[in-house]
Each structure stands twice: as structure tokens, then as C-alpha cells.
Amino acid sequence: xxxxxxxxxxxxxxxxxxxxxxxxxxxxxxxxxxxxxxxxxxxxxxxxxxxxxxxxxxxxxxxxxxxxxxxxxxxxxxxxxxxxxxxxxxxxxxxxxxxxxxxxxxxxxxxxxxxxxxxxxxxxxxxxxxxxxxxxxxxxxxxxxxxxxxxxxxxxxxxxxxxxxxxxxxxxxxxxxxxxxxxxxxxxxxxxxxxxxxxxxxxxxxxxxxxxxxxxxxxxxxxxxxxxxxxxxxxxxxxxxxxxxxxxxx
Amino acid sequence: xxxxxxxxxxxxxxxxxxxxxxxxxxxxxxxxxxxxxxxxxxxxxxxxxxxxxxxxxxxxxxxxxxxxxxxxxxxxxxxxxxxxxxxxxxxxxxxxxxxxxxxxxxxxxxxxxxxxxxxxxxxxxxxxxxxxxxxxxxxxxxxxxxxxxxxxxxxxxxxxxxxxxxxxxxxxxxxxxxxxxxxxxxxxxxxxxxxxxxxxxxxxxxxxxxxxxxxxxxxxxxxxxxxxxxxxxxxxxxxxxxxxxxxxxxxxxxxxxxxxxxxxxxxxxxxxxxxxxxxxxxxxxxxxxxxxxxxxxxxxxxxxxxxxxxxxxxxxxxxxxxxxxxxxxxxxxxxxxxxxxxxxxxxxxxxxxxxxxxxxxxxxxxxxxxxxxxxxxxxxxxxxxxxxxxxxxxxxxxxxxxxxxxxxxxxxxxxxxxxxxxxxxxxxxxxxxxxxxxxxxxxxxxxxxxxxxxxxxxxxxxxxxxxxxxxxxxxxxxxxxxxxxxxxxxxx
Lengths: 250, 492
Description:
Chain A contains 7 helices and 12 strands. Chain A has helices at about 40-50, 70-75, 95-110, 115-130, 150-160, 180-190, 230-240, and strands spanning about 1-10, 15-25, 30-35, 55-60, 65, 80-85, 90-95, 140, 165-170, 195-200, 215-220, 225-230.
């Protein structure tokens, strides 16, 4: 589904990704771990097309197309979703309205029929139930006055409604207490499916206790320096990044 | 006083030189067409003879002519106001024609020239009652005259008088004489004095004691003729316990020269009366290089003359090259309430200096001001407001909230709040914020699949929510669409 080859990217003139390669197949959950400044968030931002992230070499192929050639909104329509580390507040814009606009914009781009209010509300109710999220979030403005945990849950809820093929979670676990973490993890697990892939960017192995990944990669100094299964994460927990010889370079 | 210029870079530069944007800008003012119709009028120029001729053509009584002449003589002695944060090219008052009207004057709606009916149809204001918006009566003003007023019979049955000002002067002289100029005196300010001298048409509304007006009333102002000024005069009187909601809309063709619109609106609310006055102002704003557009110099004032009365102004200002406008409320009656809700959007080279005045005279009077300014392109947008608590305003309260949103890096937002408090028990609160559409907000929307222009409209719409809530339903939808159109090409 996703093939990243020798990806180099710069932010404000500074090279952050230095030849990153990674393959993700449908149905797989990949965890990307690594020390601060290794380029984890840069990877998420490059994949979703954020401005200010300049790709200088390499390629990203997504379902056979050149992902880097698409605008952020076109990537979203193609099924790429980024759960932000710091979700943004949009005062005065109702959460439900925002989500419906997003879903319909995506559907329109894909040549699918847009959902009317009734159809959309039905979908939202179903998702709330599955995700065990209270409908109180719906009536508020997008992330306005939300606690850290509410913002992250809202990201997961958006993901549930938008049903992406490739979901990138950028430190979705950071700043969450254990109950909120469990709830977010449960949301992700609910959405795991044979035709959906996850890229979980995280600092800590803690999340991986609840969402068990198929692969764990260590990102250091702009490259994947080691890959393995879940046991790699445990090893990291024990020895730290320095223990892998990866920390020194970062 | 705080004054903020936005110098930081803003959203997406990618679209800056995009041909599509240029195209969008070109078609963004859909009301810019010209109606071909045979006109009659006065040649350009202004002196006492012009005023006598204008008064004669409208078959006005002698007292009205004298009233105008007195205003004109006063106007000649007045200096032009220059305190607003506006750059205004000198206006040649002798180059303007003060009266232009379609040649055929219809006696009823059935006789209105088809070209005019089509004009209003195109603007989304059908004048045929069967096609008209349900529950909204319309007075259509074309250049200097009213061309028709709908639903008059139904309104008359309820005791409501709704007609053009010219007609009111002829038909209800005692009411006009009693109230005209009682809120905005002829010598109030430079543009009000000019208006008093040369006003052509506008609407007259009278709601008798205890009557709740059975439908929304509205006036649609259209400037069509070249080199013509529009000087509308509107008077709304709500007697004891009466309620009325009134809307006005305005458009003009695209023309390269600036045109002057200098209006005066007076509202009188007697005891327990309520007047809600909403404006969606979409005068031609000029092109993207700042050529052409309407100069909109307007004096709007409401007088809460009776105890427990209420006047609420809601305005959405997207048009005009220059807007100079401060809808105000004089809170004379005890416990009277004044409200002002405003969205003012400027783009390209538009300039707006707008706000309100709340003058508290009575005890326990309350006022609320919510102003939302949006600046894009190279425009300048100022809020100017005065809250005055006079000696007798025991326990009076004011709350002011004033927010500015900046789009792009070459626009300006300014806030000039003035307060005068002469009663120690009065409370005045003021909150102000300035923000811009952040790269983060844009990316967040786009990463969810929402395109750039839609993202901007959505964020702006959210910013204006508090004001849109105050508009009647159909107008809220209209206002939202208008903001979207006005912001086309604002990204980048």
C-alpha cells in the first residue's frame, strides 16, 4: 500500500529525513519509535503534505500513485489520515459540521455521492457507539476548550468517521492519562481491519501494550536503523535508544 | 486604543499567482450588471435650484422644500469630517446627479417595467408577490425612487404603514413632520446634512401601538445610473408595545468611477417597542486594484424614546470601496436596551471605518456590542465605538466585544474604543482580540480533505457565528454566501 524509498526531507533548510525507506501493507500496524529530534513527526507531516516540509530526494508511492504530487486535501480524499500531535482549535465551527464538510469534500473528490444531514447523523451515531465516545463532543466547536485527552479522542473519532486506508497517528498517546490512553487504544483496535494500515508514531512503548503492532521500527537520525516485531519495543524500553547504538547519532 | 498591523506571513502561498484565483476574482461580484432602461433625472450639480427642482419633481409640500433648503444652507457651512481612518479622494459634489429615475413611473406593481422586474429577479428579490419570499414585504428602491412595494394590502390590514418616503411625505405628512429629523437632526454631521438637503427615496415604516408587524419588512436598494449619488432616507417608528423586524440589502453595478451613497436612517421606539434592523450591505467594492466602488457614508441612529424599549442593529458589511458608518442607539427610556452586532469584511483595497455609539441616558439601560472585523488583501478595517454613560444613567451597563481576523500579510485591523462615563454606578466592559487564520488551522482542515477556499470560509464563518445568529434565517444564509464570494482569492 505504502512504499517509501530513500526519502530525504528538509524543514527550514535543515535536513531531517536522510534516506528513510519503509514498506507498509494493508492490514498491518507499524510502530515508529525513536528519540527526540529523530524525524518522527516530520515523517507524518511529509506524508500528509504539510507546507514547509521540502522533499529533496526519494519517493513515496501510495496504492501505485505518487503521493508527494498530491495536495493535502487530495491525499485525504485518497484515504490518508493524520491524527495530529497537537489538534487545532477552530472557534465557532461546530465539530459535527466540520466533520461532515470533511467527509463530503472527500466523497466529492472521489466521485461518490455526498451524505445529507440525516445520513451523516446516522453514521455519526453508529461511530460514537462503536468508539464508546459521548455525543457531547459533537455539539462543541472543533477542539475549542477541549482537554488534551478530549482532543486526542476527537482525532480518533474523526478517523472512525472518515474511514481512511492509511492512518498515521502522530504521538496520539502523548500527554494522556492511563484511562484516556486505553480509550484511544481501544478506538484504534476497533478500526483495525485487513484493508487498513496504521503508522503509529510514538515515544513510548506504553501504547504498544494496548495496540499490539505487527512491526516496530526505530527511527534515528532521519533513517530507519532497526526493524523488528513487538519484542524490539520491549528491548528499547529496557536499554533505551542509546543501547541500540541509534541514540548517539541523533 | 490598540492598533495592530499584521506583518507576519499567513496561509498558503501556493495559490498566490494562480490563474484560477485571478479568474475567481473577476467573477466574484455577481450583482455588478447594468440595467438598460430609459431614465430621467437632473443634470449634475448642486445649488438651491437643484433642491427646489428635486422637491418639485417629487411633488413635495412647501414645508419639505424649506426643510431641505435649511439643511443645504447648514451643509455649506460645515467642514468635511476627517477623523476616520480612511483615505478618501476629494468628492466633487457638483459632478454628481442628485436625481435619477426610470422614465416610466408605475402606479402599481403590475405596471413596473419588465426590465426592472428582471433586475430584481436577478438579484434574488422577486417583486411579484406570488414569487416573493414568504413572509417578507419588499420596498424596491432603484437609484432615486421606489419602484414598488409588495404586500401592502396585508400590512395595511394589520395597521402597518410601509411605503416609500416620497409617498409618506405626500400621504402621511403629519407623521413625517413629527418624526423626520427627530433622531438625526439636519445639521448632525456633514453627510447627514447633505442627505437632508437632497434625499430622494427610502422607506417609511409606521407600526401603531400594540401591533406586532405580521411579516419581515425589507428594502432593497439598487444604484444603477452613472454619476449618480443615492441619498436614501428611511424612517421607522414603532409606537408603544409595537414590534418590527426590518432588513435592507444593497447592490450596485461595477463601474470604474466611485459613486456616493449617503444615507440617513432614523428609528424611533416608544415605550416597550422593539425594532430589529438588519443590513446586508453588498455595494460594489471596486476591483482588485482599488478602482471604482461605492463610497458608503451612512448615519444610522435609533432612539429608545420610551421606557423598556429595545433597538437592535445587525449589519453584515462586505461591499463598498469605503464604509463610514456607526449605527447608534440613544438609550433615553429607563431600562431600554441597545444592541449592535456587526461583521465587516474588507478585501483588496477596501476601507471600512465602522462601529457604533451607545449613549446611555436612562436608568438601568443596557447595551451590548459585538463587532467582528475581517481584513484580507490590502484592505484596512477599523472598529470605532463610543460608549457614553451620562449623569442620569444609574446602574447602566455596557458590554463590548471586538474581534479582528486577519487574512494575509498586507491588511490592517484597528480598534478605537472610546468611553465616557459620568455616572459612578455605570459599568462598562470591553474585550478585544486580534487573530489570524493560522497555517495550523489551514493544514488541519486540508488534512481532513477540505480545500483551501472552503477552509477559509469555514474558519471565517465560525468567527462570525455570534453575529449571524442574530440575523433572520434567510439573511443568515445569504450573509454566509456573501462572505464566501467576497473572500474568493483571499488565500495566499
